[in-house]
Amino acid sequence: MKLLIVLHHRFELWNAPRWLAERLQKEFPQLEVIHLDTYEGIEAHLRDAQVTISWSLRPEQFLAANKLCWIHSPAAAVHQLLFPELVNSDVVLTNAREVHGPVVAEHVMAQILALAKKLPQAIRLQPRHIWGQESMWTKKPPPREIAGATLTLVGLGSIGREVAKKASVLGMRVIGLREHPDQGPVEGVSAIFAPSQLDDALGQADYVVLAVPLTSRTRALMNAQRFSRMRPTACLINVSRGPLVDEAALTDTLCRGKLAGAALDVFCEEPLPQHSPLWDVENLLITPHTAAVTEKLWDRHYALIRENLRRYLAHEPLLGVVDKRKGY
User: Fold this and answer.
1) How are the residues of the chain apportioned to helix, strand and coil, as percentages rounded to the nearest 5?
2) Is 171 exposed, middle or buried (0-12, 13-18, 19+ CB in 10 A)?
3) 311 catalytic, yes or no?
4) Which of 22, 27, 187, 270 is an active site residue?
């Protein structure tokens, strides 16, 4: 049985280290493990690969993979794989959503605290040698406490659940939205709403965190109308996918002072172009898609891949299976 690993990205960390294939080959000697650094020549290996680990495949490549039974994406988002040929097939698709949840949740908490304590403003003043105590206090909203503040989590998946646990420990009131609000309680979440109640949940929030997958229903989820539902003292945080946010509407809302601030880790176009107006928005904190960056990343990936390979060979249910029709 052939396992094909093909991961190619401009960012070094997103590429699988050599030891991944070597360890898998040693632990599963019954497999033929092939590791490619580029997509060149992939078709020859896809013809008899039963399992592949990849960010993406083109429809014609997928159709050439006659023996393919399972695709694993090391990303949480899989929208780039959801073309009709794959969606309508029997090929199982899994993702790494549980790998990224804990570290992305840490990033979210850092963003909340940075916005609450106005750290971006302080950092801008430092190279100018300006003691900004007065200006940071008088320009609304002033630095504030997060204990007692309301956090609205749009999405209660692996990231949302981890954020809820951390935020509630720090004294935040956490409310959340998910497709099926009656599925049961979530640790740290005091109330759960349906997607149809998003406007109500936005109106209660001091901080809104987007942690839902990108689908046709969530594209431009946060637009001018939705921003108008938020308090002018509230902040938006996006660690999911850039197209969830109408960036032009967010820029306008922030510049007019209709939102206190925002923190974006993901963007409609990445890397964010130098000419993007987002760079110059004073009350916007930009991080370059680093929420999931950690030195432990591939150790966590390996643990999940190893367990799922064990399950696959034992004909047991896999972890992280994606509902291809829902998109997550």
Assistant:
1) 40, 15, 45
2) exposed
3) no
4) 270
Which tokens in the block code for residue 7?
A: 């991961």
- For the purposes of burial, counting CB atoms within 10 Å of the CB of 2, is it exposed (0-12), middle (13-18) or buried (19 or more)? middle
Task: Answer for the pair 79, 214: CB distance below 8 angstroms, yes or no.
Answer: yes
Question: Around Cβ 282, how many Cβ atoms within 10 Å?
Answer: 11
Are 260 and 141 in contact by the 8 Å Cβ rule? The answer is yes
Q: Which helix (H) or strand (E) holds 153?
A: strand 150-154
Known catalytic residue at 289:
yes
**Token duo for residue 112:** 């909340």
Two tokens at 190? 């005091």
Q: What pTM was computed for the model?
A: 0.94
- Taking a C-beta distance cutoff of 8 angstroms, is the pair 72, 49 a contact? no
CA-CA distance, 113 to 280, in Å (whole number)? 21
pLDDT along the chain (328 residues), means of 10: 95 96 98 94 94 95 96 94 97 96 97 97 96 95 97 97 98 97 96 98 98 95 98 98 98 97 98 98 97 97 98 98 95
Full set of structural domains in the chain with CATH = 2-98+295-313 (3.40.50.720), 100-286 (3.40.50.720)
* Dist. CA 143–CA 214, nearest whole Å: 33
Pick from 115, 206, 209: nearest CA to 164: 209
Judged on CB neighbours under 10 Å (0-12, 13-18, 19+), 144 is middle
Catalytic pick among 241, 247, 300, 301: 241
What is the spatial distance between Cα 260 and Cα 206, in angstroms, rounded to a whole number?
9
For 2-119, strand residue ranges (E) read: 2-6, 32-36, 49-54, 70-72, 92-94
Q: Which of 72, 100, 173, 289 is flagged as catalytic?
A: 289
